[in-house]
Task: structure prediction
Amino acid sequence: MVSKIPDPSRHEEFVSLYVRHEPAVFSFVLAMVRNTADAEDVVQRASMTMWRCFDQYESGTNFRNWAFQISKNAALNHLTKMRRDRHVFSEKLIDLLAEQSEERAENLDARRRALDSCVEKLPAADHEMVAGCYAEGATIRSYAEQAAETANKIYKRLNRVRSQLQKCIERQLGLEEEVAQ
Amino acid sequence: MIDRELQDWIDKSINEIATEEESRSLEKRLLKDEQARNHYLNAVNLHATLRRRFSVEGETPSVALFPNRSRKKFAIGLAIAACVALFVGLLAFLMPPSQATATIAQVVGAYGDDQIAFAAGESVKPGPLAISRGLLRLDFSNGARLTIEGPAQLEVMNEMRVILHRGVVTATIPESAIGFVVDTSSAHVVDLGTSFGVSVSAEGLTDVCVFDGEVEVSLPQPTRADATPQLVREGQAIRASKGSKKINSATYETTRFENAWPVNSGVLQTTGSMRFVSPGPDFHPGNFEDNEHIVVFPERRSFIADEAIRVDMVDPGQYAKSRHKEKPTLLPEQRLTSYLLQLNAYPSGEKPNRRRSVRGQITFAQPIVGVIMANRLLKESEVIFGIPNVDYPGARMIEARPEGDQRRGFDSVILAADRRTLFIELQENPGNLDQFRVLVEAE
Result:
């Protein structure tokens, strides 16, 4: 057998496909593992598998579905390890979530795109809080401490802002549909 | 219907503050309610997007992607790379390496198929590699280290993957090479940061033994999409046969790796009655009673002590007991690797209490910087170089011949002029223990 190394253009292809679909993959994994740090780990591991197995991916087929499949395995492995210590989603629910995520992939993409302008419309104080809580390495707790607020208060505010953002996204998507019609 | 209860569970799940009970309630609801799942996916999608959006701001693009564990930076690095056209550093990483994938770091009587000897320093490019006999150590550019014992046939695919058709390999995989893969006809072995051994028999039977850390083993399948990998931890072993649908756990049996493993651990060669043991999970130097062998345990590897270390011997020659001389001291901040050698005799046979005498010779790949014999110094150095959580025994020092004494029956340790070889003769009454520690320059 002769060893084979993908040619450089395949590498560029991988980078461009991965970059395009990484946000979807991260969201997909986060829905299954539910903990941000763990999700980053799983995505990292999955991306390495994708990279290693990229010669098995056929150009032109759906990269996202292929990436989802690999990520789902990585997530299941992770959950198996976690299951001993705490409650994690069952494999049955993972299957259902994965299936639904694939079906709704386009819609979830659209929602991600719509979020940008919604974030811009947030009042300054809310924007600052969201930015603080979601900054690299930050947690709600660490932000609360920094803002000299109780974590509980920040949880509540954050829940409210997220629900406003969700409504804004839905309005936007509704608008887009109207325009399209 | 999206009710307050569901919204509350989802919020708590996202904020990572859900209790076990809330987590179970959420799961129960999601299992039976498609609408609820949609709502949950939307919420997580928003959460994930916010995380990606705000973690990137103000971050400097990272070029160090796969090689270290800075995982968050990976995706961010990629995302930024996409914006700034194609990132030079990223491409440099993702491009196939133009130079060698690995270098032959050590050769112990290793010959190729053509009966031509391998030489240390030769580079290895992706492709087939056949070793008819002897031992060969490959150091990959990402830090992965593989020792192959001939007769062996393998293929080096790239710096993250080899295919082993036949033979024995032992691997030591540092963090920089986590995810390293050894494929055989019957198993797919993915390293998770560890040392392990893989052997493939002529019949295609694959054995995997994990010395340290953990690996994932699954059946060989193109994408392994539906094969759930099995986690194999240190002190565990598995066996898989060609065409089998199952991976079986097996007895942890390291004998077949006893030649290759020392080379991986910095020992070039042992002759005479030496036995190399990889410390498993329940490692205890007292577990290895052996009347025939001096047993070698690798301890801490490539470790920097931040204090001076007193030793008994630094120069070539025979170790002799001396009360008057001050102990030599090794300066701190040297990178050292430590080994513990022992003879632990036990009563057995027709004359159970006969005094045992064992001789052997060991050559390390790197120069020996100090040997520690005295009880007190063994204890001192244990704090630094001992394997954490191991209960080291009390009295165990070797009895060296006092200077000028000509009587028989003393322990003898000689450091050869090459500073890499020790000639050892230990004598012990059953039930007693001789131990000493060797500190070697780290690679």
